Amino acid sequence: MSAEVMLVRAYASAHPEEVARFIERLPPEEGAEVLTTLDPEVAAEVLSHAVPLIGSSALAKLGGEAAAHVLEACHPSLAAGLLFRLAHSTRARLLEGIAPARAEELRRMTEYGPRRAGGRLDPRAPAVPETLSVAEVLERLRAAPAGVMHYVYSIDTERRLTGVVNMRELMLAAPEAPLSTIVTRDPEVLFAHDPLEVVARHAAWKRSHALPVVDRERRLLGALRYSTFRAIETELGQAAAGPDTDQTASALAELCAVGASAMARFIGAAFALDPIGPERRSEPPPPSIRRSVLPGGMP
Q1: What is the C-alpha radius of gyration for the chain, rounded to an integer number of angstroms?
Q2: Beta strands in the chain (DSSP E)
Q3: 137 and 107 in contact (C-beta within 8 Å)?
Q4: With contact defined as beta carbons under 8 Å apart, do 19 and 34 qualify?
Q5: What is the pLDDT of residue 125?
Q6: How far is the C-alpha of 294 from the C-alpha of 297, rounded, in Å?
Q7: Interior CA angle at 156 toward 75 and 128, to 5°?
Q8: Which H helix or E strand runs over 73?
Q9: Which of 107, 215, 236, 269 has minimal Cβ neighbours within 10 Å of its Cβ?
Q10: Neighbours of 98 (CB within 10 A)
Q11: What distance in Å separates the CA atoms of residue 49 and residue 250, rounded to the nearest whole number?
């Protein structure tokens, strides 16, 4: 590894926001080159600070294996948000390179999109069969600790949510006790199709660190954590107050990322629908359709 690459990696690890701003000024191909030089975890951190559309464009230019490593290093909601902004064919290509179970989770999240609970959940929330003993549940959690925070969810054979138990109660329970005997039944839930406004108004946030997210058949898809709820509150509050400077800059950056070609195609399509002939170009508008721009002004 060259000294230059080592320096880039060290700088990106210490200043991911600065590297994100740098990538936003580059064409997607060059942004992908920068991401390629970074460790997947650092690349994921950089993408979390980048304008989403620009980050997804750079991600799409990565090779299959490199993109897979970065996607797997991203938090699921970040990965889903990046994939959501890509064409279906590109999204499918990138998902082919990652583990099937993770690919299916991300595919489902992108179907809901970032404006619904199903697109903002954490699919790694622990869900185990309610027939297991407490000792067996703890063994599974030790083997796969990713996503373990406050709660463990119990499910039936159809993956329908049957109950929830917090980690303290689980660890204090008798090892031989069946999980079904210690869970709280009928927990409060969010539905995957709930819009963010419904998520933010849910009364259970006053007493819960996370809420399970289920589909229409009450199959457990994951959990939406309190930190995500607070981020959603902030987003909705900013939207209600109007865009601030950072939001405006982000929106302009996304527009720039779209490029002039899309606008050119739009203008071309407009002319195709309503062609302007030579005679129309040379004729001035009829006087009868001219109007003053002043209120109450004369024609």
Answers
A1: 25
A2: 127-129, 151-155, 161-166, 184-185, 190-191, 210-214, 220-225
A3: no
A4: yes
A5: 94
A6: 5
A7: 45
A8: helix 64-73
A9: 269
A10: 20
A11: 11
- Report which of 133, 128, 131, 130 is spatially closest to residue 177, judged by C-alpha positions: 133
Q: Where are the beta strands (DSSP E) in 90-233?
A: 127-129, 151-155, 161-166, 184-185, 190-191, 210-214, 220-225
Same domain, 67 and 137: no
Only one residue has tokens 């925070």, namely 149
Rounded distance between C-alpha atoms, residue 183 and residue 162, angstroms? 8
Q: What angle do CA 42, 63, 105 make, to 5 degrees?
A: 70
User: How many angstroms separate the CA atoms of 103 and 68, rounded?
Assistant: 10
pLDDT tens digits for range 165-213? 999 999 999 999 999 999 999 999 999 999 999 999 999 999 999 999 9
Instruction: Domain of residue 94: give its range.
Output: 3-112
CA 244/CA 251 separation, integer angstroms:
11
* Domain count of the fold of the chain: 2
Per-residue tokens: 73: 């290093």
Q: Tell me which DSSP letter residue 214 carries.
A: E
Q: Which two three-digit tokens encode residue 272? A: 């195709």
| Same domain flag for 98 and 14 | yes
* pLDDT score of 254: 53
Is 102 found in the same domain as 142?
Answer: no
